[in-house]
Design brief:
7 helices, 5 strands, elongated, 12% strand, 197 residues, alpha/beta, five-stranded mixed β-sheet
Length: 197
């Protein structure tokens, strides 16, 4: 009611999109970590409890990476926290970075703006977009190959349909089930609310 939803399709669409995007974001995080680990023989999962995601053995030091999915995924407190964690690794003789899976340094996002203010020498302590993928793989063209592999995998799983089309199909199916169970129109929405409240 507080969202002004009047039809079963509106209720279902909101819920399906909310659940689907939450699921995709969670799954994508695990997928990206596995993809990073598969991209390099010198990269491994960071020790449990360290807070870091991955660590790469270099010739003289280790490179610790905290991976973030995008260029606007961190707030002030997180940046301050990771600035301290990065400095701890540097003090131990290693290198450490915040790795961001996509984007560019020139993007004007809140997170990148905060990094410029709160992360000393932020350019040396971040790997953004293709920098992360190329660093992990030791291949300056790796990012182009990974996109092709991802496109091929998506076509295998989704064929020619997009994830939005798949979600749309799901919304149609769940709306039909909703109407059968609760009824149509505002009466159906009211019946649904009575059952869950």
């Amino acid at each position: 009611k507080s969202l002004n939803l009047h039809t079963p399709e509106e209720v279902v669409r909101l819920n399906v999109y909310a659940l689907a995007t939450r699921s995709i974001v969670t799954s994508m995080g695990f997928f990206v970590e596995k993809l990073l680990l598969a991209s390099s023989d010198s990269l491994e999962k960071a020790p449990r409890g360290s807070g870091w995601d991955v660590v790469k053995d270099g010739t003289e030091e280790r490179h610790w990476v905290q991976v973030k999915s995008g260029p606007n995924d961190m707030d002030k407190d997180q940046i301050v926290y990771w600035s301290k964690k990065i400095q701890e690794k540097i003090s131990e003789g290693d290198k450490a970075y915040i790795g961001i899976t996509y984007g560019k340094r020139t993007n004007e996002t809140v997170t990148l703006g905060l990094m410029k203010q709160l992360l000393p020498d932020w350019e040396m302590k971040t790997l953004i977009g293709r920098e992360l993928w190329d660093f992990v793989s030791d291949d300056p063209e790796y990012h182009t190959r990974i996109f092709e592999l991802l496109r091929t995998a998506a076509q295998t799983v989704l064929t020619e349909r997009s994830i939005c089309e798949e979600i749309g199909t799901c919304i149609g199916r769940v709306t039909d089930e909703f109407v059968k169970r609760y009824g149509d129109g505002e009466a159906g929405v009211s019946n649904y609310i009575k059952e869950i409240f």
